[in-house]
């Protein structure tokens, strides 16, 4: 897994398209918290699914992971709240059904 760097968005704004990196085939990890989002750009001809692991439980039952479909040619923002924070690593675990033409970035609004 690759550890994605969090880009802080200042009040003056931030160009983000040049901050996106290739999604890792084995998945990525990212910071979580209020105002943190994962940007996923799918330049492939088909849809891709991004899954953010939910490590928590409720009454001993696992909480389902968050799966988000990103259509061909689309860019999606996925909130990375602390709900997705793995207590062992302190980061969210992100996986992809395919990484061809998929770029990602993590951003936090200042």
List keywords for this structure.
globular, 110 residues, single chain, 45% strand, mainly beta, 5-stranded mixed beta sheet
Overview of the molecule:
It is a single chain. By secondary structure, this protein is mostly beta strands. It has one domain (2-11, 19-109): Hypothetical Protein Tm1070, Chain: A (Sandwich), CATH 2.60.290. The protein has no helices and 12 strands. A 5-stranded mixed beta sheet has the order 1-4-11-6-9, with no helix packed on it. Strands 2, 3, 5, 10 and 12 form a 5-stranded mixed beta sheet that branches. Strands 7-8 form a two-stranded antiparallel sheet. The protein is globular and about 40 Å long.
């Amino acid at each position: 897994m690759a550890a994605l760097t969090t880009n802080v968005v200042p009040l003056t704004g931030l160009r983000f398209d040049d901050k996106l990196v290739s999604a890792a085939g084995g998945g990525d990890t990212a910071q979580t918290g209020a105002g943190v989002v994962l940007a996923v750009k799918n330049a492939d001809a088909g849809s891709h699914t991004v899954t953010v692991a939910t490590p928590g439980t409720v009454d001993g039952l696992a909480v389902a992971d968050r799966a988000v479909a990103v259509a061909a040619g689309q860019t999606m923002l996925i909130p990375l709240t602390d709900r997705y924070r793995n207590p062992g690593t302190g980061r969210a675990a992100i996986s992809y059904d395919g990484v061809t033409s998929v770029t990602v970035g993590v951003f936090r609004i200042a």
